[in-house]
Amino acid sequence: MKRTPLYEEHVAAGARMVEFAGWQMPVQYASGVLAEHEAVRTAAGLFDVSHMGEVEIAGAGAEACCARIFTNDARALEPGRAQYSLIANERGGLVDDIIVYRLERERFVVCVNASNAATDFAWIVEHQTGHCTIVDRSEATALVAIQGPKAASIMKRLAPASADLPRFGCARIDVGGAEAVVARTGYTGEDGFEMFVAVESAVALWRALLETGATDGLIPCGLGARDTLRLEAALPLYGHELGPDVSPYEVRLGWAVKLNRPDMIGYQALSRAKAGDVRRRLIGLTIDGGIAREGASVFAAGDEGPAGGTKVGVVTSGTHSPTLGRAIALALVERDGDKGPFEVEIRGKRRTASVTGLPFCVKRA
Asked: Which of 32, 26, 28, 21 is nearest to 7 (CA)?
């Protein structure tokens, strides 16, 4: 298994380490998932996300390359801006979801999921167009994220220039002596920043952030809190809500598809999906009587038991929401029956599930 440059910091802080996408990562610290979750919702949390991959696309043809491979229109980005996007296959399914950063007119950096880093890099190289250079920067790059309502004030003390960044803005900024690409992005539903730095600067940056934010309640957070936070915010996770046979129009991501480029990979299939050629829809559920995990069957309520009832979908992610104090889940269900009522099978028993609006929790003021 791989280790991030912050591995020793996690161990020294008492983190419980687990395998994730081929990496040893902290799932939680001694404070526990609930405390880490609450810190991000009320103060700030610090995450090591150095397992994510970074691909640089540069040169005169970089914009054209991005326009062909990514579903959102990277041509609309000005330098210093980023956008959420997708990589679609020819069938209109998803290779990955990504964030594209335009650092300069002819230089883009793409942040990809850890589990898909090698696949995405190979896909981009295979489908590139125009004159551009594509380089995998993952091994040389560490990524640290600070998230929460106090993240901006902490960052302002350590890196005053960060205060000028708008949401999805990005810039080269000195953060406590470390040169970083700082972006106002995140994966928690809260305000925050993600910082790309050279691996040799990661430890100093991590320590500087924790020291600066200590009086504001900043604490290190692991993958456990990252997952409960993203699920409360109804943010999709590849391998759960997203996959090669999932259309963005099934999972509420049609807004990240711009059908203004017929040469874009998946254009024909995505056009049909936008016109209504989809069979499923992603919904949010609150559940009584237990937590539904990934793969749990969803039934139309009122049918006979699991052996003879009508299965209409499957849970893609589920957890106990610390903020709401109840079980929540995302589920892909048949489009014709997406209004419910539903029941979810949990350990052989069917539990009542109610459709709720998404996201489950909105950012606190």
From this structure: 26
Report pLDDT for 363. 64
275 Ramachandran zone, left/alpha/beta (phi>0; psi -120 to 50): alpha
Largest CA distance in the chain: 64
Q: Does residue 346 surpass a pLDDT of 60? A: yes
| Cβ contacts of 26 within 8 Å, gap of 6 or more | 10, 15, 16, 17, 18, 48, 220, 222, 223
Q: Is 161 exposed, middle or buried (0-12, 13-18, 19+ CB in 10 A)?
A: middle
| CA separation for the pair 151, 166 (Å, rounded) | 14
Q: DSSP for 26-46? A: EEE-TT-HHHHHHHHHHS-EE
Burial 1-25, CB ≥16 within 10 A → b, else e: eeebbbbebbeebebbbeebbebbb
Give me 168's structure tokens.
């999805």
Residue 39 dihedral angles phi and psi, to the nearest 5°: -60, -45
Name the pairing type of β-strands 2-3 and 23-28: parallel
Threshold 0.90, pTM exceeds = yes
Q: Kindly give, in sequence order, each residue whose CB lies less than 8 Å from that of residue 119, ignoring residues fewer than 6 positions away.
A: 95, 96
pLDDT digits (tens, 9 = 90+) for 19-51: 999 999 999 999 999 999 999 999 999 999 999
* Sequential DSSP letters for 272-340: HHHTT---EEEEEEEESSSPPPTT-EEEETTS--TTTS-EEEEEEEEEEETTTTEEEEEEEEEGGGTT-
d(C-alpha 356, C-alpha 232), whole Å: 12
Q: What SS3 class is residue 208?
A: helix
Across the beta sheet with 53-58, the strand order is: 81-88, 94-104, 107-112, 53-58, 133-136
What is the b/e burial string over 90-115, where b = at least 16 CB atoms within 10 angstroms of the residue's CB?
eebbbbbbbbbbbbeebbbbbbbbbb
